[in-house]
Design a protein that fits this description.
The complex is a heterodimer of chains A (150) and B (317).
Chain A lengths: L14 E2 L45 E2 L6 E5 L9 H5 L5 E4 L2 E5 L9 H5 L7 E5 L4 H6 L10
Parallel strand pairs in A: 1-2
Antiparallel strand pairs in A: 3-6, 4-5
Chain B lengths: L8 H4 L17 H11 L4 E6 L3 H6 L10 E4 L5 H18 L9 E8 H7 L1 H10 L4 E6 L39 H6 L5 E5 L4 H13 L4 E6 L13 H10 L6 E4 L3 E4 L9 H6 L13 H24 L2
Parallel strand pairs in B: 1-2, 1-3, 3-4, 4-6, 5-6
Antiparallel strand pairs in B: 5-7, 7-8
The chains are: A alpha+beta (150), B alpha/beta (317).
């Protein structure tokens, strides 16, 4: 259900930002162009991320997962697909296809918690857990629906 | 222009992102929310230039780029100049028929922070607006030079603590008022000028679409809360923006053809400005008894500005 391996290109996660790449920063000539895609990039706007031919220069192939100390966990049973998290995610880490929220891209998420703040459901369908927590344990700890205080 | 649907969030979310993750902006930064929204609200090809600033240094960390469109890295001041030059070349080549695809729609966008818009790039921007190129300039206003350690800019509001206008025993932070960049740009007779905020995603997407559609130079000032320099928790980015628009610290409005002013958001309950100030670390010295007059002055300025906006909306001048 939350296995998103299909959604990412094969190259995903092989680079750490600042890793060994081609030429050093002091060997770069002026006016250098980094191409975001391999080959033809026409009509890229109508292609979903998994259909695109990202080049090694595209930061889509990089990861910033090491920035995170807490991670958001997504509970699909509570989600109402309002897409608030999608529109306000600063790191393009909410994976949403055909009006449905599918999960979180943990290679790009920095754990800022904005998605948890804007989630309108009760209980929230996104909650922060420790980075080491696995999905089943996190889901089993999900809080019950809060009753309105009178 | 190919407009993507912004009727509701579900339809908006079917767009394919053209701004990729793994950039190095701080967690919770509003810059990328605004950039993503701009790139999602149109299907057209985009040519983008960025002034030096947080956005530029974080989205092009060698050897990576986060942009799936044409993007130019340029100096601190001249994104407006670079993108208008590209626009002039595009027009000329279109007339001569030497483009690869002569009918493909292309939009020209420049991004700048408040430092490069209000101060350093001001005359370049003013010149580009005056020449009347068909482009959109978007200012990501976080009220200081956040990229270099939070120095004051002319966008910093009165009373804010910055690294070069510090609060202490003899000072309450910056003493000057914020420059009214929207009015200045409207005075250039620009066809579309607006001030928008990321928490009202729909009015922001509408404003972006209007600016891209409008022929001629358009200017949009967007509020971009900076968790590092405004000193609040990254998760509160949207909450702070809510407070900014509900206390009318950042009224959301547009000015068409330099005189038709429309207020795009009227808060149901206008909150006192203290709530906005108390949520941020950079204003915490204002709550000392000796600095009470600064809060009163901020509230007075806000009330006067809101009154002025409402009168201008009515009078259409």
């Amino acid at each position: 259900m939350q296995d998103l391996k299909l959604k990412a290109a094969e190259k995903r996660g092989i680079h750490q930002l600042g890793g060994d790449e081609l030429v050093g920063w002091d060997e770069v000539t002026q006016g250098i162009i980094l191409t975001s895609f391999d080959g033809d990039a026409t009509d890229i706007v109508h292609k979903k991320a998994e259909e695109r031919n990202y080049s090694d220069f595209n930061s889509y192939t990089a990861t910033v997962a090491s920035w995170r100390v807490k991670k958001p966990v997504f509970n699909i049973d509570v989600c109402i697909d309002c897409q608030n998290c999608w529109v306000w995610c600063p790191d393009t880490s909410i994976i949403s296809r055909d009006k449905q929220m599918l999960g979180i891209d943990y290679d790009h998420c920095k754990g800022c918690e904005v998605c948890v703040e804007v989630c309108p459901t009760n209980p929230k369908s996104l909650l922060m857990f420790n980075e080491q927590e696995d999905l089943e344990t996190a889901l089993s700890q999900w809080p019950e629906k809060k009753k309105k205080e009178k | 222009m190919a407009i993507t649907s912004i009727k509701n969030l579900k339809e908006f979310s079917t767009n394919n992102d053209r701004f990729e993750g793994a950039h190095t902006l701080c967690p919770g930064c509003a810059h990328s929310m605004i950039v993503r929204e701009l790139m999602n609200c149109t299907d057209d090809n985009l040519v983008i230039a960025s002034n030096t600033g947080c956005l530029e240094v974080s989205t092009a960390v060698y050897p990576f780029t986060s942009w799936d469109t044409s993007w130019i890295h340029i100096g601190f001041e001249n994104a407006a100049t670079a993108v208008t030059g590209a626009e002039a070349m595009f027009k000329a080549r279109k007339r001569k028929g030497t483009l690869k695809d002569n009918d493909a729609p292309v939009k020209f966008v420049a991004f700048g922070g408040d430092g490069s818009t209000y101060d350093i790039g001001f005359q370049w921007l003013s010149g580009a607006m005056e020449r009347g190129h068909d482009f959109t300039y978007i200012c990501l206003d976080n009220e200081n030079y956040a990229n270099t350690g939070g120095q004051r800019s002319s966008a910093t509001p009165i009373g804010a603590h910055t690294s070069t206008a510090q609060a202490g025993t003899h000072s309450y932070g910056k003493k000057q008022k914020k420059k009214d960049i929207v009015a200045i740009m409207a005075a250039h007779d620009a066809p579309y000028v607006a001030q928008l905020a990321p928490n009202k995603w729909k009015s922001m997407a509408k404003g972006f679409q209007k600016a891209l559609e409008t022929e001629g130079p358009c200017f949009i000032n967007t509020v971009s809360p900076c968790c590092t320099e405004w000193k609040f928790d990254p998760k509160d980015t949207i909450n702070i923006t809510d407070l900014a628009t509900d206390t009318l610290m950042f009224p959301i409005y547009e000015i068409i053809n330099g005189h038709e002013l429309n207020i795009l958001y009227r808060p149901k309950n206008v909150l006192p400005v203290e709530e906005y100030l108390a949520a941020q670390g950079r204003y915490k010295h204002l709550f000392k008894p000796e600095n009470k007059h600064v809060i009163e002055e901020i509230q007075k300025n806000i009330n006067e500005y809101w009154e002025m906006l409402q009168r201008r909306e009515e009078a259409r001048v």
